[in-house]
Design a protein that fits this description.
Three copies of one chain form a homotrimer.
Chain A (H helix, E strand, L loop, with lengths): L5 H24 L3 E3 L5 E2 L2 E2 L1 H19 L9 H18 L7 H19 L2 H23 L3 E3 L13 H21 L10
Antiparallel strand pairs in A: 1-4, 2-3
């Protein structure tokens, strides 16, 4: 049994799936990434990408609620601002072609910590680290497998961009807040298990 | 009779008129925009531009107060931060020459929503939408009339930049906060009409 | 006798000394700055640079506490977000090569005021101005002395970048918050003098 109601989890899958192709399109349009194999596509993205981001969004939100300590103060406003911040950062990574590694890493890591400091908590940081590790590892494996590749000036971390973990960290922090918002509006937990 | 005192409205006209030529200068200096006809000028701007922005600032602030529900918590600090955020975003749009449309739109729209999520409310969003529609329409008409033009890589929305509505939205949200700040320091309304 | 305990001042020196070479490396890697004379070095920086930033961090923090009126609401979260914001801004200045002076100044000044509006107070602004004046003057003198130089497209203010005072201002505001955080966790002042 999930802590979050099935309909809300579905809503989070859709949110992630609808928004992520926009960021992916920016990376393809700037030449930051390129797909080498693609069967079914949505815009510039293969079908698996929005599914991966959508399911991850819901899984991280559910994980956050299961970690306990959902904050009463978290409001929809935080969720809206958080999602917008991730999208702005996603777009900003498209400006980093040809820039020194330290510039991109410091800019995105700094912004990631700013976002966390405004809307995050310790358990949200855990979700952020989980997202950073799993997201970066997934992309590194797919890149190694020849599914897609980062530009040669942006592939310094196991074949992916060095700033990528910090973009995923912010995604995880925001997904955690989405979990808190979904949960705090639903006073009676669906299940006391977990 | 206006809801805001005449002197404060005049102050808002001046604020918009003094700051806007700086942003306009950035657009001209980066080649984002160029004027084709100009009679009276202030720096790189024709006289009508700071007047347009200044009067719009005051009109949007007055509109926000007339919409009611002025928040007591709004402080001068929010107004200062909001004006600074708009100017930083205005400057950031000067970095978008030659970038994909989706990058500029996602970056500026994301930042616009972040600013709204921190200092805005529903009625402020209404002011933002009014500013986005009227500002973009005004520039599209003037561009069509041959008064000025956007660079060919930045004119994809009716002859103006696709990120322009989101910059105007942020301007409208901040002008609304300026209205709230001006009003909340003036406990006795000048007029109960409206 | 200092207001802040010696161990905390040492921690602030270390914080500034450890983080600053990262920003300096970005400026060197982007060609924003270049060193002409360097004896002892740490990464791309001469030894004196991290020492200068580290000691300045502690001195500004101590100054803030001596100015009085330490806010009880200031939390570690503000300090973490503030340090991250300065580093993100430091990195962003590396994107400004070849951009118009007004763009860089407006972007960095706007962001500086946004940071101040979120975590600063009047006395923090005083620390910011002290940092802006002393930091800019120090770099201008060292540049004039031939120790290092800014790129020819970024040296318009006494030989240093025109956006530099606003980066130092933010640094001073954040160092002041670091002082408040260090002090507010230490209810019994070490010394009532000052």
């Amino acid at each position: 049994m999930t802590q979050l109601p099935a309909l809300r989890l579905l809503g989070l899958v859709l949110l992630g799936a609808v928004i992520s192709p926009l960021g992916d399109h920016i990376h393809v349009a700037t030449g930051t990434t390129a797909y080498d194999e693609m069967w079914l596509r949505i815009g510039d993205s293969p079908l698996w990408f929005p599914l991966f981001v959508g399911i991850s969004t819901a899984a991280l939100a559910e994980t956050r609620v299961r970690l306990g300590g959902v904050r009463a103060a978290v409001s929809t406003r935080w969720a809206v601002g958080g999602v917008a911040a991730v999208m702005a950062m996603y777009a900003a990574t498209g400006l980093l072609r040809g820039q020194p590694t330290a510039l991109g890493v410091t800019l995105i890591a700094g912004l990631a910590i700013v976002v966390w400091s405004v809307i995050g908590d310790g358990r949200g940081a855990v979700c952020g680290v989980v997202a950073a590790v799993t997201g970066t590892a997934t992309e590194a494996i797919l890149s190694e497998a020849g599914v897609f590749h980062y530009a040669s000036d942006s592939d310094g971390l196991l074949g992916v961009a060095p700033w990528l973990p910090f973009l995923y960290f912010t995604f995880g922090v925001v997904a955690a807040v989405l979990g808190e918002v979904s949960r705090s509006r639903n006073d009676q937990p669906v299940s006391s298990g977990g």
